[in-house]
Amino acid sequence: MIHFDDITSKTVDLYSILSKSLRKSLARTEFTIQVIEEADSEIQEANLLIEEVFPSGEAEEYKPSYVLGSNENGLCLACLKRGFLLGCISVSFDLEEKAVAIHSLAIDPKYRAQKLGSALLLSLHDVCHELGIQSMSLISSEQGKGFYQSFGFKEMALQSYETQLPFSKRVVRKKISDFNHIHGKDKALPEDERIRKKHTREDKSEYSTTFFNRHKRHKQSKKEANTSSAVEIVNPFY
């Protein structure tokens, strides 16, 4: 049986956990998914990505370094191309309650519409399946409803969304099919020179894809107190 620490310490190869269909889809591209830790060089790239796509003054607590440092069971998965970080998802697990809360999910603006957000969420789903996690929760803005609902999330209260795990087979097949459709048509990806150099970010873009925790800005009623996480999507073109 695989334990949480086996994943975060990279004792277990992440790709041995991912579904066969997702592994095959990623193998057809130059994208890779990997676990990143606080000590990894990629964590700074992930922090800089959060700074780029998050509203000014709201990025700090949504950075992967913050999520990992402030949660005993925090995890960050990153999507890379040729060593450049293009997206990341940061979450925290409640292993006793068999639940996971998404804190942030961000994609490089130049790579929106490449379905990288879906690839990261599917990767997280496979990790959750391995750990026996039964539910996933977050809070989404109005713009993000369609994205989450397409994965089977249902609105519980005050823009709070939750879904039981695993995702339905139909959802997984559809998301992987969409990913393959985009990356199986020889469609041109952004030019290499458009990938920012390490530790350098371009100006913020209003067309970026951002998912982020906003529990401090959304005070919930007692009935809503059971919702454990908060996430917002700024643009659904992931």
From TrEMBL:
Keywords, alphabetical:
Transferase
Single GO MF annotation: N-acetyltransferase activity
Q: Does the keyword Protease apply?
A: no
UniProt KW Magnesium keyword: no
UniProt-listed Gene3D superfamilies: 3.40.630.30
Query: Which residue positions does the secretion signal occupy?
Result: none
CDD domains reported for this sequence: NAT_SF (cd04301)
Q: Where is the N-acetyltransferase domain?
A: 34-172
Q: Which domain of life is it from?
A: Bacteria
Q: What protein is this chain from?
A: Acetyltransferase (GNAT) family protein
- In which organism is this protein found? Legionella israelensis
